[in-house]
Design goal:
Layout (H helix, E strand, L loop, with lengths): L9 E8 L9 E9 L2 E5 L7 E6 L3 E6 L2 E2 L5 E2 L12 E6 L3 H4 L1 E7 L5 E7 L5
Antiparallel strand pairs: 1-2, 3-4, 4-5, 5-6, 5-7, 8-9, 9-10
Length: 125
């Protein structure tokens, strides 16, 4: 799986297309940050300048205009059983996230069971 990293610290890169090129060499990696086992990333509906990165130990961090916010968007490390193929596995924003603030997180809980929870975005960040 291309989104999983075996090391405890992964470097996430964004790819940008070089002008006019149409082959595999048309992309170059641009480092955007250092993360703890990044496993998923998304752009939230209505927030084109924000990139949300899920870290397997149980956090979702946000980059706004390529700058990492000091506080995580979500920290559920206390709820997550982490190691190997376990941990925070994925997340998704509700289609109406811009107005509802709802998002969903898939993770392995402390009992070793896969769990999906719905969360609501905080009104302040």
């Amino acid at each position: 799986n291309a989104r999983r990293f075996s090391s405890s610290l992964g470097l996430l890169c964004a790819c940008t297309m070089l002008a006019g090129a149409r082959d595999a060499n048309a992309y170059r990696a641009v480092p955007i940050g250092t993360f703890s086992n990044p496993i998923d990333m998304r752009v939230a509906p209505g927030q084109p300048n924000s990139l949300y990165v899920a870290e397997q130990p149980g956090k979702i961090v946000v980059l706004v205009n390529e700058r990492r916010r000091s506080r995580p968007f979500l920290d559920i490390e206390a709820l997550v059983q982490y190691g190997g193929e376990e941990g925070l596995l994925s997340f998704a924003f509700a289609p109406d996230y811009a107005t509802s603030g709802r998002f969903y997180v898939l993770y392995v809980n402390n009992s070793g069971n896969v769990q999906i929870d719905e969360f609501l975005r905080a009104t302040t960040s």
